[in-house]
Write a structure and sequence with these properties.
The protein is α+β, with helices and mostly antiparallel strands and about 375 residues long. Helices cover about 45% and strands about 20% of the residues. It has nine helices and twelve strands.
Length: about 375
């Protein structure tokens, strides 16, 4: 099942690297745009993965900037140097668990809060190849804008603290949407900042992803597979350590329970092992006689009983008593029975013997009278 991941990458669109705002706008929107600055036309109309595109303008911006070609050519014409930084480009992963409408609402609200409110023009487009990796491209201008067009550069938009704030707010908006569909959450912080002992994977990028999906291996893909293997091995090691700690704690609790039940340290206990049927009846007999004990599995189908070594003599007497029961009542009506049933039958017989002894003194005088009458005849 696909799960949400955190990916939020910000890059500068710079002429010194052969890039242009017009070309980037054509790519993310899947449109044909001619860059008036250098005369190059960029045509991405065959790009079929664009599922939504939208332009957001700040207050005071010319309404004509709602036209993508007009907007980004205005950006290009405002920059005169051959090494100018014309725009910022953000590439961010969208939660796959939420609907398309929720994805659009997420991006729109995030852009309004972070960019439009600061005076930036925003051009965003959602891409989805139906491969479980929906994402959004966000293109931003670098100059202030008024009703006449673009003016001066705003260097505060390059502040590192602002970038960190954007990264956090993206996670917050994603988690806000995820809250209503499942318990999944994403975190903008690095593994190190989260105190998670994992190696971060590298971002494959569109080119490497396409190659990997065709069944071919890439350097980045191999690196990620090695990282994944190391992370799994590390996680297994951590889980084994936790399991060992749990087992140690469990043993300590078990020993405390045994000592509380039996009433002495384990070092002062005695133990013997026998079949479960016998031991269950034996422990019941011990309990009736006020002798504390505890039954535990021995791992071979039998059970062991633990008791205070101070009760050795009482235990020996009880074992002798059970031997007598076994000899006296091997079966009941020719059928094999449990030890519990044997003990119950033995106690029933002992009760009858006791009742007969109580009745014996009242019956004896009647017997004497019948003998005298017989002799007088």
């Amino acid at each position: 099942m696909p799960i949400a991941i955190y990916h939020f990458n910000v890059k500068v669109v710079s002429r010194s690297k052969g890039a242009s705002a017009a070309a980037k706008a054509a790519y993310i929107s899947g449109e044909k745009i001619k860059n008036e600055y250098d005369g190059v036309t960029h045509d991405y109309r065959k790009k079929g993965e664009v599922v939504h595109k939208e332009i957001l303008l700040p207050n005071g911006a010319p309404p004509k900037y709602k036209n993508r070609t007009v907007l980004w050519n205005a950006v290009e014409s405002a920059e005169t140097r051959k090494n100018s930084q014309t725009a910022k480009h953000i590439d961010a992963a969208l939660p796959v668990e939420i609907t398309r409408d929720e994805q659009i609402d997420l991006v729109r609200n995030f852009c309004q809060q972070c960019f439009v409110s600061r005076g930036m023009c925003v051009d965003f487009a959602i891409h989805d190849k139906k491969d479980g990796n929906p994402h959004v491209h966000i293109l931003l201008n670098t100059r202030r804008v008024d009703e006449h067009g673009f003016t001066t550069k705003d260097r505060s938009w390059n502040d590192k603290a602002l970038l960190i704030e954007w990264r956090k707010l993206w996670a917050d908006w994603c988690n806000h949407k995820l809250y209503y569909v499942n318990g999944g959450r994403i975190d903008h912080r690095s593994y190190k900042a989260q105190d998670i002992d994992k190696i971060p994977q590298v971002h494959l990028g569109a080119a490497a992803c396409a190659i990997e999906k065709k069944g071919f291996k890439t350097d980045k893909g191999c690196r990620n597979r090695n990282i994944l293997k190391q992370n799994i091995e590390s996680e297994i090691e951590q889980l084994n350590f936790k399991l060992a700690s749990i087992n140690t704690e469990s043993l300590s609790v078990r020993n405390e329970l045994i000592e509380t039940t039996v009433g002495c340290p384990i070092s002062e206990m005695r133990m013997f092992i026998f079949e479960k049927d016998y031991m269950t009846a034996f422990q019941t007999a011990l309990s009736k006689n006020g002798i504390p004990s505890i039954l535990m599995g021995s791992g071979d189908g039998n059970v062991k009983i633990l008791f205070n070594s101070c009760d050795d003599e009482k235990i020996d007497e009880m074992q002798s008593h059970f031997s007598l029961i076994g000899d006296t009542i091997p079966t009941i009506n020719g059928k094999n029975v449990t030890w519990t049933e044997r003990v119950a039958e033995y106690e029933r017989r002992q009760l009858l013997v006791g009742q007969e002894k109580q009745l014996a003194p009242t019956l004896e005088p009647e017997k004497d009278k019948s003998v005298k009458k017989h002799r007088s005849r």
